[in-house]
Amino acid sequence: MVISQKLAVQPELFFITEINSVIIGTFMAGYDGHRGWLYTVAVSPHYQRQGIGSKLVRHAEKVLIAMGCLKINLQVRVSNVEVVEFYRKLGYLVEERISMGKLVA
Questions:
Q1: Cβ pair 36, 29 in contact under 8 A
Q2: What is the pLDDT of residues 50-104, one digit of tens each?
Q3: Which of 93, 23, 83, 90 has its CA nearest to residue 62?
Q4: Which residues pair with residue 15 across a beta bridge?
Q5: CATH second-level architecture of 2-89?
Q6: Is this prediction's pTM over 0.85?
Q7: Where are the alpha helices (DSSP H) in the chain?
């Protein structure tokens, strides 16, 4: 369901990578005209730690920048130390913010 929702809104910001016609990685981003957002990077466990996730993030960054994006944000759960380190290595910094949300459905 998440993929079909993304394909309905900014499908140009849904990226996949494949080997021999098999999808091994996906990435979703968004752009609201003010800020870019990185949402979900997923790489098949067999292909992790080979730079595929990093390449997907870098590709998304290039597309967002080409759209006029000046700042890219993302959210990671505090407990997800491994992913925090992944993004730190790509140049992302922890910013002091409070993240708030509201379920509407």
A1: yes
A2: 999 999 999 999 999 999 999 999 999 999 999 999 999 999 999 998 989 999 9
A3: 90
A4: 27
A5: 3-Layer(aba) Sandwich (3.40)
A6: yes
A7: 2-8, 52-66, 81-89
